[in-house]
Design brief:
Elements lengths: L9 H12 L5 H8 L3 H13 L10 H39 L3
């Protein structure tokens, strides 16, 4: 019978990594305690270090505003594109009707 796959929250993963990195608990002990493989532990650790810079990045109010403006601009362009496509499709259907095509 297959085991049910366990899901760890990001907070749980960080807590497990912290035990090893700060409290110096052995990887083998952690893996046994939490029923994970060493490969899984080291994958979490690699991901943690690869994405660790995000914790120290701060966005200024100006950056946040620029991102919001960019998002709004792209949303407006997408809405306009959809309107243009709808108009073209409407003209295409009308032309097909006048030519007697199905």
């Amino acid at each position: 019978m297959a085991e049910v796959r366990r899901k760890f929250t990001p907070q749980e993963k960080v807590a497990i990594l912290r035990q090893h990195l700060v409290e110096k608990v052995a990887v083998s002990e952690l893996c046994e305690k939490h029923k994970i493989t060493p490969n899984q532990f080291y994958r979490w650790q690699a991901e943690f270090f690869e994405n660790g810079t995000a914790a120290f990045e701060r966005r200024s109010g100006a950056q946040e505003r620029r991102l919001q403006e960019r998002l709004q601009t792209l949303s407006d362009k997408l809405a306009h594109k959809d309107e243009v496509i709808a108009e073209i499709m409407e003209a295409h259907v009308a032309l097909k009707k006048t030519l007697g095509q199905p």
